[in-house]
Write a structure and sequence with these properties.
This protein is an alpha+beta fold and about 200 residues long. The protein folds into 2 domains: about 100 residues; about 90 residues, Golgi alpha-mannosidase II (Immunoglobulin-like), CATH 2.60.40.1180. It contains 3 helices and 11 strands; from the N terminus they run βαβαβαββββββββ. The protein has a 4-stranded antiparallel beta sheet, with no helix packed on it. Strand 2, helix 2 and strand 3 form a beta-alpha-beta unit. Helix 1 runs parallel beside helix 2. The longest helix is centred in the N-terminal third of the chain and has 25 residues.
Length: about 200
């Protein structure tokens, strides 16, 4: 199911700029995404946000983008949604701060069922918990070295000794070697390195 999520004030401009317009937009954004997630569960289908954003490279526009993306990620509750950002040439003339908001870490492939996912764009911390269904398939993570992990990243998988973690072209690849308890989830934590070693 494909759908759009737009702020009802400030689109094609600075986003919501007053406390009242922020409250209205955040209520509407959250309401739309909650209802679509409920629809996805009811219909047993994947979801895809085909448009959102269309706000300027200003503090209020960036705050609106972050609010919607945090909800698209699932806020730590299950499956993140796929998305495309609508920019009408805004990104082409935007700052690295704007691009960093959009260069979010996410799983491109998961060898199992996602239980929880979250990403903090300010710190670069990504957490993914999933139930593995394969000992040979890999879980792939997109991790932007240009905008999020300029000095590299660390990936910690638990339980200890469960997985082999390898750096890939655009992030990391994780293969489950051993799960101590049947049905035990795999927990992945990604953090930024503070400087090159």
């Amino acid at each position: 199911m494909a759908f759009h999520v737009y702020c009802i004030t400030g689109t094609d401009g600075p986003g919501p700029v007053t406390p009242i317009t922020k409250d209205i937009c955040h209520f509407n954004d959250g309401f739309q995404l909650k209802n679509r997630r409920d629809d996805l569960k009811r219909l047993h289908t994947p979801g895809f946000v085909t448009e959102f954003g269309a706000v300027e490279d200003v503090v209020t526009g960036l705050a609106e983008i972050r609010f919607v993306l945090d909800h698209i990620d699932g806020e730590g509750e299950g499956m993140p949604l796929s998305w495309i950002f609508w920019d009408y040439n805004l990104v082409d003339r935007s700052s690295d701060t704007y691009r960093t908001e959009l260069a979010r870490s996410y799983p491109t492939a998961v060898a199992g069922t996602i239980l929880a996912f979250s990403f903090n764009v300010s710190t670069g911390h990504m957490a993914l918990t999933y139930l593995p269904n394969s000992a040979t398939a890999s879980t792939e993570l997109y991790l932007s070295s240009k905008y999020q992990y300029k000095h590299g990243f660390n990936v910690v998988a638990s339980p200890s000794g469960c997985c082999t973690v390898a750096v890939s072209k655009n992030g990391a690849s994780i293969v489950v070697n051993h799960v101590p308890d049947a049905g035990a989830p795999i927990d992945l934590q990604v953090t930024r390195k503070s400087s090159k070693v």
